[in-house]
Amino acid sequence: MEILRKVKIIDFVDYSKYGLIFSIFLTIGAFVLFFTKGFSLGIDFAGGSSAQLRYEQNAPLAQIRQILEKTEGFKGSQVSEYGSNHEVLIKIPYTNLFAGKNLNVILEETLLSTGKFEIRKLDTVGPKVGNELKQKGLLSLFLATLAMMLYVSFRYEWRFALASIIALVHDVIVTAASVIVFNIDLNLEVVAALLTLIGYSINDTIIVFDRIREKMLIDRENNITQVINEAISNTLTRTLLTSLTVFFVVLTLFLFGGENIVGFSLPMLVGVVFGTYSSMFVAPKLAIIFGFNIQEYHQKEIKKQKKAQEKERLRRMYENGVV
Prior knowledge:
This protein has about 325 residues and is an alpha+beta fold. It folds into two domains: about 10-40 and about 130-290, Multidrug efflux transporter AcrB transmembrane fold (Up-down Bundle); about 50-125, Alpha-Beta Plaits (2-Layer Sandwich), CATH 3.30.70.3400. About 65% of the residues lie in helices and about 10% in strands. The chain has a four-stranded antiparallel sheet. Helix 7 packs parallel to helix 10 and helix 9 (about 235-255) packs antiparallel against helix 10 (about 260-280). The chain is elongated and about 90 Å long. Forms a complex with SecD. Part of the essential Sec protein translocation apparatus which comprises SecA, SecYEG and auxiliary proteins SecDF. Other proteins may also be involved. GO terms for molecular function: protein-transporting ATPase activity. It is a multi-pass membrane protein. It comes from Helicobacter anseris. Keywords: Cell membrane, Membrane, Protein transport, Translocation, Transmembrane, Transmembrane helix, Transport.
């Protein structure tokens, strides 16, 4: 299936200068958020309890907050609407007061005066387990990024490899910042979204870079700008189809999956958009900025081909008994 039957060559390299400026501002803004507002750790990482309540009537959020704030052990709890005005999510900080006790019963007794409700879900994570989950989650992100860095370093000329790595880190930083912007708790779902994004983003960049390399080897064109523009334009249909397919699947999860997976679906929505954008408007332009020389690349490829031909000639001579 093709969206663009007749390929029109778009000057992506020229537009990329605006993309780089936009990305620089986004990255700076992301770091400002990291060091000022910071992440709100979810129960998975911070420890504590998360209770989901469903009322028969509209949930009295103000009354619930007032009661919990006056009750020992529940001070500092976060109360918010959860999907509908009948459901409430209560995040309770960890305390030793509830150790070994049935929190369901305590919560029911504490909120008895707020109306008739049922506790649909109650999750509790200790601080030690939460800290271990946080360390393992961050470690998995680091290792996944490192693995992608090693892969592209062996696969491409170092300038293209460096450009793809920077684009990948850019996508992760921007997506992580969106977690703060949309007030999503940093938990295992967010880590899963970032890990998925790492694979998606680097795959998108590799498709574009492979096409650029093919164009350089086949056409022997010495204008790198023209090669990049033609390569990205030729892969534009594939990129749009893939990105839109993933985007609409994740959008369906976000719209109909409920609050339970918003920590995965919303960062993925942001990540798909910026992963596609960076593969076309950031990574190729960075390769040019880093001083990639297409003439030198062609000379290296010619030397490689000559070495391969000489190796093949010597192998045939050896097989035929000629020394």
